[in-house]
Amino acid sequence: MKITEILKNATETKVSFEILPPLKGKSIQSLFNILDPLMEFNPPFIDVTYHREDFIYKLMPSGYYEKVAIRKRPGTVGICAAIMNKYNVEAVPHLICGGFTVEETEDALIELNYLGVQNVLALRGDARKFEKNFVAEIGGHKYASDMVKQMSDMNEGNYLDKEISNAVKTDFCIGVAGYPEKHFEATSYRKDLTYLKQKIDGGGDYIVTQMFFDNKKFLDFVKDCREIGITVPIIPGLKPLTRKSQLSSIPSTFYIDIPEALESEMEKCKTPEAEKQLGIEWCISQSKELLKAGIPCLHYYTMSDVKMVSEIVKNVL
Question: Is pLDDT at 96 greater than 80 in this prediction?
Answer without folding.
Answer: yes
